[in-house]
Automatic annotation (TrEMBL):
Domain of life: Bacteria
Biological classification of the source: Bacteria, Pseudomonadati, Pseudomonadota, Alphaproteobacteria, Rhodobacterales
PANTHER family: CONSERVED COMPONENT OF ABC TRANSPORTER FOR NATURAL AMINO ACIDS-RELATED, HIGH-AFFINITY BRANCHED-CHAIN AMINO ACID TRANSPORT ATP-BINDING PROTEIN
Name of this chain's protein: Urea ABC transporter ATP-binding protein UrtD
This protein's UniProt keywords: ATP-binding, Nucleotide-binding, Transport
Pfam families: ABC_tran, BCA_ABC_TP_C
The keyword Transport is assigned to this record: yes
GO terms of molecular function: ATP binding; ATP hydrolysis activity
Keyword Nucleotide-binding found: yes
Segments forming domain ABC transporter: 5-246
Length: 246
């Protein structure tokens, strides 16, 4: 499997504290990967580096084939390369309908320098319907986003990210605050999305990670502590000591 994203020996320090320490790992083009680890392990900082929010002191982040360095791009350029990030708290426009939110995302994806007077074409109406259905919100398109459940808002935001057809989605703790039924739907959604793109999920909820049924990377003190199936990493004595056994 050729790598879509390769993090190569990156380190970053904040006021002398090494949050990321010679971190290396790679993600395939159509892969679902869970990233776990104790608080402060560097999971958020890793996503900040990939999206260009934080610059590493050393190492490289290579993207695509032939590989380009993401470190030479700013945040907007990285987003245009096809890297989308879903933060933990949903940020949808609560007073707008699901369809409006998706339409705005589609418009922003086509023209980041928003065009006044833009009118939705038949193709974009169909695309919005397709996005809503992809994230399980086909029956909710006319509802205001503010009326949706927490889980539905998370799916809407994922749908908004999908409007720009990302090749890599970084998803931060999607299961937090969801009901069991919502978690199960979210698992199915992420698994489905990863059939055609890379999806990296940072998550603390081990039951959720188990349901993702994917390769797991365990971070600790800014480095990879273990990697493999969930059963493999959860048998690792180091992982038990620093993360599971607490
Ligand atoms: N901007 C910053 N300035 C100073 N220290 C920072 C900064 N960002 C992160 N850190 C420190 O770097 C370490 C790694 O933080 P990070 O947020 O990446 O961990 P995490 O694995 O995402 O943790 P959590 O599971 O709690 O979200 C922590 O010790 C954190 O306090």
């Amino acid at each position: 499997m050729s790598a879509l994203l390769e993090v190569d020996g990156i380190s970053v320090s904040f006021d002398g504290f090494r949050a990321i320490n010679n971190l290396s790992f790679s993600i395939g083009a159509a892969e679902l990967r869970a990233v776990i680890g104790p608080n402060g392990a560097g999971k958020t900082t890793f996503m900040d580096i990939v999206t260009g929010k934080t610059r590493p002191d050393a190492g490289d982040v290579k993207w695509g084939t032939p590989p380009k360095s993401l470190l030479r791009m700013n945040e907007a350029q990285i987003a245009r390369e096809g890297i989308g990030r879903k933060f933990q708290r949903p940020t949808v426009f609560e007073d707008q309908t699901v369809a409006d939110n998706l339409t705005m995302a589609l418009k922003a994806a086509r023209s980041p320098f928003a065009v006044l007077g833009w009118r939705p074409s038949q193709a974009s109406v169909e695309k919005v319907a397709g996005l809503a259905s992809e994230v399980g919100l086909a029956a909710q398109v006319g509802r205001k986003a503010g009326e949706l459940s927490h889980g539905q808002k998370q799916w809407l935001e994922i749908g908004m990210l999908l409007a720009s057809d990302p090749r890599l989605l970084l998803v931060d703790e999607p299961a937090a605050g969801m009901t069991l039924a919502e978690r199960e739907q979210t698992t199915a959604l992420l698994v489905r999305l990863a059939q055609t793109r890379a999806v990296v999920v940072v998550e603390h909820d081990m039951d959720f990670v188990r349901r993702l049924n994917c390769k797991v990377t365990v971070l600790h003190q800014g480095s990879v502590l273990a990697e493999g199936s969930l059963d493999h990493v959860t048998r690792n004595p180091d992982v038990i000591e620093v993360y599971l056994g607490r």
